[in-house]
Each structure stands twice: as structure tokens, then as C-alpha cells.
Amino acid sequence: MPFSRAGQLARTVTTARLSDPIGLVAENLREAPHGVLPVLDRTTFGDQSDRNARVIGLITQRDLSKVTQTLMGANTPAPIVPATIPPRPFSPDVQDSSGEHQPRVAVENSTEATPHLNGSSPHLNSSNGSGPPNIKTLRAGDVMRGDVPIIPAAFSLHNALLTLERYDFSALPVIDEAGRYMGLISRADVVSAIAGTIRPPLVGGMATPFGVYLTDGRLSGGVAPFALFLTGLILSICLIASQLLLALVVGLINPTWGAMSLSGRISELSDGTGLFNLLITVGQSLLLFGAIRMLPLSGYHAAEHQPVHALERGLPLEIEYVEKMPRAHPRCGTNLAILGSLMLIGFQHLPGYGPEYILPILIFTFFFWRAFGTFVQEYFTTRPATKKQLQSGIDAANELMRKYQAEPFATPSMPLRLLNTGMIPVAGGMLLGYGVILPALDYLARFILR
Predict the structure, then answer these.
(1) In what order do the strands lie in the sheet containing 211-215?
(2) Which domains, from first to last, does the chain contain?
(3) CA angle at residue 87 from 81 to 93, to 5 degrees?
(4) Which of the given ranges, 49-58, 244-253, 379-388, 430-439, has the highest pLDDT on average?
(5) Closest by Cα among 175, 181, 151 to 163
(6) Which of 99-108, 165-174, 235-244, 320-329 has the lowest mean pLDDT?
(7) What pTM value is reported for the model?
(8) What is the pLDDT of residues 39-75, one digit of tens each?
(9) What are phi and psi of 186, to 5 degrees?
(10) Which of 37, 128, 273, 417 has the greatest number of C-beta atoms within 10 Å?
(11) Rounded to 5 degrees, what angle do the CA atoms 398, 403, 408 make?
């Protein structure tokens, strides 16, 4: 079902308790996306009982500012008040599109409109009763406003927007039918849902020979999954081609070495230092990267990352913006495939399988796989995408966005979720290539060495 109710847009934010010091409240407000901090009767994280938390108040940055000015008192110079737009008058009672009666528009501190929480306006109380309050002794309960409106989860988006506008808060709490706190909702949340521009929380994808594939793990946009299978097959062919080229180069030096390199048994020539094997591993890796770089797949790889960057940065999905985005992405799934290939190359040419050979490869992978993956993406597995390739990525992103607006709460089965990531068809293509071509190369090498 598409976005239609306020409860669907409630977002979890940092919350406060009555006993939280004002300094902590201020720091959390600095990070709050709407400048609003709900005060709950318990925290919203921890054990399952926290899900029963209820809103007992609200603190805004304006509340903290007023309290601070009050505490500073006469020591604070009178501010210069600039000219302002006169406050808007009350509007008459209105009705929404469904015919439901709506109460008159109220200012922020008004209690005339409903629904709202019972309580009082921001106030100052001594936290410990030992003297006048100061900024270090005040608590959230001393400054929160308890008479604040709430938005029921069942409210339509139109009613939610009317309530936000009526009370002039940047965001308001959303509660379920039992009165439990669900999160905050803002004007921007509602308008974005109505406009159909809410982004999926996480987007990944794959480059294929026929275009870009993007997914949020549940829904997908772009080329069909079979194209992902071909991506894995092409990667395996690139790996095998690098092995063939390596065998040809080494075979020019020594035909026996070339045949052993063809079958992946050149490690038998190790002199015990592993230097020869290291040179062979680096050589085949460079040949693998060069093969990938020359393919159109590397352009589609860049066209996969750049629209995702644009989505995450809130930029329009248009070529003039997308083409300026970085080609490398930290969540690139191709990193895993490339690093898997590198480990396969390394193990293939190791002089042995003792810890002195295995541990360096594993340590390098653990500490440097992300930095190395970014380097590989930037200089080997991506290249500047053409307009056509960028448009493929933009089309995939737009398709995913349309599907997400229509089915933001779809819950697929775990097998379907794994399939949607694209890793299974890519791995299937790679295994097919290795399973068919590598045994043939090994047979050819054994025939030459007879």
C-alpha cells in the first residue's frame, strides 16, 4: 500500500526523559532533524517494554533559548528587535476534503485545538529545591511544554499537514491507537510523501552488460536479474582471460612455466621466498583489472554508483547533476567480487597453505578491503560513463522510486530478498565460468606438460 497515513511516516529520533540535564537536551537538539525533542515516560531504546513509551512533553530550541535568556536576566543586554511580519490572524473553522470538521487554526501555545497532551507551558522549577535554578541544575521536565498537540497514526496525510500547520511546530509526535509513541512527523515528510519523492532508506545495485540494476533489498529497478548472471559470467571470463595472458607472457620465458601458470600450479616453482609467486599474483591482478576496465561494464559500473550518490545527497536525478557524482561508492558490491577474485588468485599461486602464506592475505583483506576497493573502483573497475549509460542508471533509480512510493511496506521472503540483492545470480555466473572453463584449462595444461 502507498503512503496514506501519518503512522507510516513516523520517524524515530532521539528522545529525552524528565530527568535529563538541559545540557544533554541541548546537545541532542543539535542533532535532531527537526529541532524538536519528545520527552517520554521512558527511553525508546533498550528492552521491549520501551515500545510502550508515551509522550509527556516536547522541547524545542526556542524553549531552551527562552529559558536561557530568563536565567541570564539583567546581565543580558536588550537585543535589537528587527522588523517582523505581523502574526497571522485566526482563520474561521474549516472542513477537509472528507467533510470532517476541523477546529480553528491556533497559535503554537494555544489549547483550543485538539488533539493535544495535557500539561503546561515551559516553566522553571528548581531541580533540587536548594536554591534558584541555573543552567546546570535544570532538567528536561523543568522546561518542557506539556500542552502540545499530537497526531494519531490513523490521520490522513492531509489532516496531519493541517495539524502541523495549525500549531506551527516543525514536527509533532505520532501516537498509535493505544497512545504509545511512534516517532515524529514533519511537514516535509508529508509533502514528500504526497509528491512521491520519499527515498528508500538504503539503495544498492549492480552493473551489467545491458544496463544498471538498483534495489533496496525488496524492490528493484533497471535490467532483469538474468543480466546479473551475465555480469558474473563476464567477471569469470575476465579472470580466466587474465590467466591465459599471464600464461602466454610467462610461456615466452619458459614454456613449462607457462603451462604451469595456465593450470594455476606455478606455485610449485617457489624458491621458498614467495617473491616469484607475488610477482605472478600482481601480474595477473593487473591483467584482470585491465580487462574489466576495457569493457563497457566499467562505464555501467560508474553509472550504477552515481545515481545512488545523487539519491543519498538529495539531488535531482538528472544527467547534469548525476555526472558530477563520484564514480566509487563505499557500499559497492563489486568490491566483494573483485576481492574474492584477488584472494582466488593469491591462493592459486601460493607456494603453500601454511599460516605464513594465508595470514598475510587475510590480514590485508580485513584491514584494507574497503580502501583498496575504493582505489580499484576509481582506477580500474569504473570509467567515465557515457550519457546513455548514465541515463540507464537514472532510469533504474526512477523506476525504483516509483515502486517504493507504491509499495513502501512490502515484506518479501528471505530467499526473494537475497535474490534481489543481485549477489546470487552474479555468483552463479562466476561459478559457471570457473566450473566449466578452469577444468578445461587444467586439462590443457596437463596435456602440454606430458
Answers:
(1) 204-208, 211-215, 220-222
(2) 6-195 (3.10.580.10), 204-448 (no CATH)
(3) 165
(4) 379-388
(5) 151
(6) 99-108
(7) 0.70
(8) 998 765 554 445 678 899 999 888 888 888 777 764 4
(9) -120, 170
(10) 37
(11) 125
What would the grid cell of residue 123 be?
A: 516553566
